[in-house]
Amino acid sequence: MLTASTDIRYLKGVGEKRGEVLKNKGIDTVGALLRFYPRAYLDWTDITPIIDAHFYENVCIKARITTPIETLKKRKDMTIYRFLIEDNTASLEVTLFNQTYLANKLRTGREYLFYGKIDGGFIYKNLKSPIIMESGFMGIEPIYPASSKLSSKTIEKLTKTALSMVQLPETLPEEIRKRNNLCDINFAIQNIHFPKTRDNLNRAIKRLVFEELFILQAGLTFLKRQNRGKSGCVIIDSYFDKFKASLPFELTNAQTRVCKECFADMSSGRPMNRLVQGDVGSGKTAVSAALIFATAKNGFQSALMAPTEILAEQHFNTLSSILKNRNINIGLLTGSLTKKQKEKVKLELKEGKIDIIIGTHALLTDDVEFNNLGLVVTDEQHRFGVNQRGKLSSKGENVHTLVMSATPIPRTLGLILYGDLDISIIDEYPKGRQKIDTYFVNSSYRERIYNFIKKFLNDGLQGYIVCPLVEENEALDITSATEYYEKLKENEFKDYNIGLLHGKMKPKEKDAIMRKFASGEIKLLISTTVIEVGIDVPNSVVMLIENAERFGLSQLHQLRGRIGRGTKKSTCVLISDSKSQDTKKRLNIISKTTDGFKIADADLELRGPGDFLGNRQHGLPEMKIADLFADRDVLKTAGREVENLIKTDPELKNPENSGLKAEIIELYKKINNN
Hints:
The chain is an alpha/beta fold. It is 39% helix and 18% strand. The chain is globular, with a radius of gyration of 30 Å. The chain has four domains: 1-40 and 148-167, DNA polymerase, domain 1 (Orthogonal Bundle), CATH 1.10.150; 46-137, CATH 2.40.50.140; 240-426, Rossmann fold (3-Layer(aba) Sandwich), CATH 3.40.50; 436-593, 3-Layer(aba) Sandwich (Rossmann fold). It has a seven-stranded parallel beta sheet, with helices on both faces. It has a six-stranded parallel beta sheet with strand order 17-22-21-18-20-19, with helices on both faces.
């Protein structure tokens, strides 16, 4: 007897060899096969008259063949078949390539169904290599993500076998289904694969989208409650006013609010798990300094992990300045220290002589031990995997966790990406922060922009030119960083000290270039997006971004954040020759606003959640059917239902919630394995 948890190898038609191919697609059980949804459908029920068929759109046409099938021999290995079809509205040309068997089966005067994309012909609209069925065929045919080893038809056949043998357990309580007009699970699974009607397909999609977002939010809510159930070290914030008063600058209202939100967590007896979001320059480091100060005064150690050595050193210098004369010992641990230096730092850390250690991935090695770790801070979380954050936290007992990110994420998406964290937002800039003027132009302005940059360099200031690729790609006609650098060094900027930085350089090479730029030795840095997360160089006031259409809005905003770090007015210029209206719309948006959260919302709307979910580092399972932007209303509704359910059955002990509980356990496994 097969069940949803049966190994996929034991389904009829699979076996060992095909089982391995399926497992490589993430299909390891019969249930996983049933949850492997089609990527598209051939809808043979939705007939389009030829006269209404639009160019470059997929259509299903019901028509009869009106001319004999003409055979054209183009070359030895290519035979083309051509004929006309007609319905009551117009005629259309059909072209088949090397489809001799099909061409021989077709009969002039007979009616068929043709499915394909409309193209242009000399006289008639044209259908090239359409799928052709007998006119009596009715139905909606699934198309699955296929590969050379596994065709869509094979997946379709196996899915039919699984559906005839297995029923899935219900995951949504009946009351929730009724309230939201959702079909049951097995109707949904049957009709997501083989719908009889378009209405049945829509009902299945509605149910499965809701279910996916409901289970995700329920799982994350239980995960957050589980974390809150643990006792953390208690950090009292009685030192905060004293800390604020002694700063050489004034904290903004947003910084103060976020500090108090953090202290409320840290003094509660439960571990803090909080994400602090704020644009570049909004003052996240000052917030972390306040927490680190209070943690040290309460007798606990802190650790701050940054993605690069130079960023770790910047944090070390900034915190050393903020926390000077406060009797707090700060240590630095990076890969470039000598063995003797590392051993000294590790010993002092273990003995409790260091209150705050700042470092890179070097902090994660097994021989880094703490005396009494109470707070872990990770900077630019998207550069670290979830497991890395957890590994550092595990070096203490139920420690407080602060995650800092300068990558603005729309709140709805943030609740999913960082579902195990509470979210605080610094939405205010410190006094004196300069607004960056941004302009969008085409390449005809390039020489004028070069002269504009030179004016700043002549005044002793610095700048960046950002390119999308490292090496030339003629097919895409995209400016290459390396060739561009050589051209500028020999021509336009031959009288200036310029440098090159890209991701293919070794870490030591990148580090050396950034140090020269930070010191002012390099005046103009030609770079790829490797500077997206970089160091503060207050002397940098101008940036040119080539082929700006190649970047997402949020990425452009991050890059732009490398300038405007000091007190001088800064300017960013975006160059693009793209004729796309979408591109022009995106680049005009970033030219008009510097609000990172507005930009993130626009980016999500224009490009979808791919930008934010693309690196898969957040540890959450990939959405199978839901779209976090398009389905944001469903996300909110499902979230409210999760809140109601937890009030009535906080431990999910009710028998009708057993299927949901099983799905949440599976979600835990996926999060922990990512």
